[in-house]
Every structure is written in C-alpha cells, then in structure tokens.
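Exercise: predict the structure of this protein bound to 2-acetamido-2-deoxy-beta-D-glucopyranose.
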Amino acid sequence: MIQSLNGSGRRILTYPDVHPCDDIAPNTLLELLISLAYDICYYKTEFFPTNNRNAKEVIRQIGVILVFLEEVRERDSDLPDSAGLCFSELLLAFQKIRYLLEDCTSEGSRLCMLMKSDRVANQFRVLMRAISTALDVLPLGLIDPMDEINSHVELVIRQARKKKFELDPNDKRVKETLVSVWNGFENGIIPDKDSIKRVLDYLGIRSWSMCNKEMKFLDSEIGLVTMSSSDEKNELGGLCSLMGFVCYARCVVFDIVDGETSRQSENNPGNWVLANLNPDDFRCPISLEIMVDPVTIETGHTYDRSSILKWFGTGKSICPKTGTKLTNPELLVPNLVMRKLIQQYCSENGIPSPETGRRNRHVKGEILVGCLAAEKAMKMVTQFLSCILANGTKKEKNKASYEIRILAKTSNFNRSCLVEAGVVPKLLKLLLSTDSWTQENAIAALLNLSKHSGSKTAIVENWGLEYIVDVLKHGVKMEARQHAAGTLFYLASVEEYRILIGDNPEVIPALLELIKDGTNRAKKNSLVAIFGLLMHHGNHWRVLASGVVPLLVNLLASSDREDLITDSLAILATLAEKIDGTVAILQHGDLDSIVKALNSSTSRVGKEYCVSLLLALCTNGGKDVVAVLVKNPTLMGYLYSLLTDGTSRAIKKASALIRILHEYCEKRSSGSMAHVLPQERSIHVW
Ligand SMILES: *[C@@H]1O[C@H](CO)[C@@H](O)[C@H](O)[C@H]1NC(C)=O
Ligand SMILES: *[C@@H]1O[C@H](CO)[C@@H](O)[C@H](O)[C@H]1NC(C)=O
Ligand SMILES: *[C@@H]1O[C@H](CO)[C@@H](O)[C@H](O)[C@H]1NC(C)=O
Ligand SMILES: *[C@@H]1O[C@H](CO)[C@@H](O)[C@H](O)[C@H]1NC(C)=O
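Solution:
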C-alpha cells in the first residue's frame, strides 16, 4: 500500500489538509509564498508525461507572480493586514499546485495520470482561477501607492482567466488508444504491439522495470480503492483494465528484464510457505469453519472433532466425504500436522486462531474480482508466455520463465490462467536447463503454481515429480533445490500425492541432505515438506528409516533459529507418537536437551510440541523415561509455568505429564511400580 503513496506519504491527486493561515502576519506569508513559488518553478525542466502544456503554462504564470512577490518584498514595507487574506488564499492554491506537479511527474503513476488527465487539467484550471480571484482582492493601493506594479498583477489576473487549461489533445489521443486496446482485450482481440508501444513511448515508459513500477502502483491503488467504502469503488474497473494493459505490455513489449528487481533473491521472512496456503484446506468439510481440533477418521479424511461427532450423533456411521461405511467410528486420530498449519496460518495472517476466537468466516481471501478486460488480458498474456516457452529462443524462454515466476506469485486467478495456458509441462522441461537462472525461475514458478490444485495435477500427470526430485538433488543453485523442497510441500497437501512422493525412494534422503547442508531457507522448506509427508501414516516408517532423528536432535541443539526448532520439534513429536519413533528418539537424543528446548523455545507452538514430545516419550517409553525426567531439576518448573501461559493444548499435555511424574514418585515411595502410565496412551495408538 505504501507504494501508492508518493514520497511524502500522500495519495496521488489528494491534498493533505492545508489550513488557511489566519493568524500569520502578511510579511511571513509573503516569504512562504516566495519559497513555494520557487519550488514550483523548479518543475520547469521536468518531463511531464501528461498535461504537459497545462503544467508548463501554470509554472510560467507562477513565475510571473513570483517576480511580483519579490518586488513587494523589496519594498520592505509593512503590509496591510488586508493583504493577509489574499496571501493565505494564494498559499493554499500554491500548495495544491505543487502537489499536482509532483503527481504529474511522479514515476509509477503515469498510466493512472493519463487516465485522469482531464481531471488534472480541470484542477489546474480551478487553481489558477482561485489565484486570479485572490489577486483581485489584493489591496493594491495600500501595497503600492505609486501604482508601479499594479499593471503587472492585472496582467497575471487576465492571463489566468483567459487560459482555458483544457485536456491536452495529445493526452486525449493516447488515452483513446489505450482504451481501444483494453476494449480489444474484452473482445478477445490480440492488440497490435505498435499501439501499445505508442502509449508507452508517449508516457516515457521505456523499460521493463518502469512498466513494473506502474504495475506495483496500480496494484496498491486497487488495494486502496477496494478497501474504501465510498464511491471510489467505481474506479475499480478502470484500474483493473489498466492493470491488464500494463501486464500485457510488460510481458510482450520488453525483451530484457532490467532493474534491481530482476535478480533480487527472495527474502521473505520465515514461514512464507505456510502463509500462502489455501485457507480453504483448513476448513472442516462439514461445518466449513476453520477447524479447531482436526481429527482424521478411518478413511484418512480430516474433520473438525465437534462436527464429525455431531455427524455420528445423528446415527450415520459413514465418512461424509467418501460415503464409505466405517467399521470403527470411534477412532478419531488427532491431526497434529493440520493443527500446526492452522495455528501458524492464523497467527501469520492476523486471524485469531480458532482456539481463541471461534468465528472465522472472514478469512483473508481474494476479494478482488477483476474486470473483464483484465481477465482477458491475463489470459492473452499467459497464452503468449506459453507459446514462447514452446517455441522461443533460449533467451526468450528465460525471460518468459521469469514473467511466469512473478505472475505465479500474485493470485490464484492468475495461476489458473497460467495452468490453463499449459505452462506447467513446459516449465517442467525447463527444469532440465543447465542455465542456473532459467532453472531457478522455472522451479520458483512451479512452487507458487503448485498452490493451485490444477497445477498440482498437471505436475504429477506430466511426470513432474521426477523432474522436481532431480532439481532437489542436483539443482544448479541452492535456491533451486530449496524451491523444489517447497514445491514438494505443496504437492504433499494432497493425500494421493503424499503417498506418491513417499513412494519415491529418493525424496526423503534428498530432503535430509538439505536439512543437513542447506541454507536456513532450504532447511525450513525441507522440514515442512517432511512434516507434510508425515500426514500420511504410511510415510512414518520411511521418514524414520531415513535417519531423520539424529539430524533433528542435532538441529535442536545447534540451531538458534526458532522456526527451525519449532519445525523439528513438530516432526519429532509426530514421530514419537509411535513406539518405533520413540525408540529412535531415545536412542539418539538425550532427554535433558529436549527439556532444555522446552525452556529455550520462545514460541508457544514450539513449547506445545516440546511438551507433546515429552509426553509421547513417557507414554511410549515407559518408566525408564519417566525415571530420567523425574530427576531433571528444572522440568517441573517449566511445566508449571506452561500451565499459566501455554496454549490450551500445551496446558493439557503439561498437566498429563505432571500427573505421570507425580504418580511415579508416589508409587516409588510406596514401593509399587505398577501402572505408571495412565489413560493418555490409548489416544495415541493408531
Ligand atoms: C510452435 O511452432 C510450431 C511450428 O512452428 C507450431 O505448430 C506450434 O503451434 C507452436 N507452438 C506454440 C505453443 O505456439
Ligand atoms: C511465491 O509467492 C509468494 C507470494 O505469494 C512470494 O512471497 C514468494 O517469494 C514466491 N516464491 C518464489 C520462489 O518465487
Ligand atoms: C493477477 O491477478 C490479480 C487479481 O486476480 C491482480 O490484482 C494482479 O495484479 C494480477 N496480475 C499481475 C500481473 O500481477
Ligand atoms: C530458561 O530460559 C531463560 C530465558 O529464556 C533463561 O534465562 C534461563 O537461563 C533458562 N534456564 C535454564 C535452566 O536453562
């Protein structure tokens, strides 16, 4: 949103509240006026893409007034109070003019200013009228009894009145070309490149990066207009059409990606993968609400516990999604992975987590419904890019893959256009490229495309898994490998693909390698990918057999990245729920360092996983584990503090653990060691 505001934090064509300066002495006002007039005159040499003549004429007239004002100053006499009224009116007008000139020359808003060029012309006219009116009331006789400069002022007044400040005929013509292009979009007519070039040339938009600036600006304008409730909304259609135009132009007209943005590495903070999940995946298929306590039933489908219980309560013992008759409807397995994703998603998107606030209908989604022209333009753009990927030169393909990469980031609608245009199989082929930049673009594009369900299918159906695994293992750059891991994470959100990915014997070892040697981002992506794979119970042994446990235990001890620690704890907690997982963890990790993680982990989610892990270890590991934990001098303290500030789930787990530890001590002192482990166990055995 910030980009839409210019340097001074103001939206284009709006004026901040400028207050009339009632109490300021006329001589002070005069100084202010002179300095403002100088500011305005500096614009004389600027390039005005639109309203050029009007702007230049206004600057010229202000220049004439400036001469007059300086003469008044030179007389160095006390100005009559009645001059103050005129001066403060002038001041208002000058300030607005300066803002207007700033808008006319600002980069990024050129297309917008073209569309509004008649409004701008009108503003110039209104402001110059205001100036001549203000000058009219100037008590000239009092300022200059000798009448020397009066004629000067009268000249200005006359000129300001006379000039019409009309819409510049060139602006008008170019605007018409622009509108005809987007009308063409609506009717599916591929625009002629020359018309587009004419518009861009006229506005001085001469490079890819300038085009990109226009897009960014439009994007934020669209955001602002969408948020506003007023009649601004009817500008939306025009803005969307402009967006379609400029996007098409950027992709089709410029061959070279220039500017700092082009090769900039992506450096979004921590949990970008999670932040971009489709929130619909978190809704219970029955209640359509974000799930509070997701549980998986026999068929592998996940529902919110309360909804599925209600469903069973009505006497139906079939899976609502598949209709399969259930042999054991009581079997509800908590889906920890899903819970974690929901919590992270909620906390990162500022949505109150379902645990704290129950109603979550307003999940941030794509509010935007673009207009027809923009949609059609997007379809043409994607068709065009798809053709280039098929038939372009190496260089063209490279550029197209970059365009696709940045388009794939923007919205699900754009992703669906790309998928429909058939870019997925072509991008997969590009993964074989030895050019690191092309390969990276292609896999980055696939990563974000794979948020769209259609492209998940397209990837898998075109043997994409193999290509992606190949990049995961041998990608030219670390970034490419990291994106490959991220892509697998998204693919793993589909149960069927989770199985498929797990079946590929190369995937998990390759992910492990990244956890071992990758950058933090690569580690992160690999961790969440493994976590995603664990959603399928059949992958449990595979993950375990890969030797992930010592790696994670090591990471816990050595990393200072909170997000990596939390992810590791989450995986370990999930693994520990089965006996063989517990055994592996006990073999490689020492309990004291896990207890330490409970203290040092700063996130509540991390603590929750840590206590889940400890509890699962006790439940599955039996009294040997309990005996060690009882001796730890700090654990009890941590557990009690969790009772006051943990998540509700952490509180439950912490109290269960406390109970186990207490019981153990009591039994030990009373000599009986039987049955240390209480009911908790039953819910963990799948
Ligand atoms: C690529 O070129 C061939 C032959 O010139 C053509 O038949 C094919 O349709 C083109 N493919 C695309 C996607 O434009
Ligand atoms: C994917 O899209 C998100 C925004 O939707 C962006 O922040 C991220 O950088 C993109 N990833 C890649 C690898 O381009
Ligand atoms: C992609 O789509 C959204 C709306 O669906 C739009 O706001 C965005 O600007 C589009 N295009 C590009 C090139 O970013
Ligand atoms: C527990 O954490 C706090 C702050 O995070 C730290 O000051 C303290 O030393 C830790 N305790 C132990 C025993 O490590």
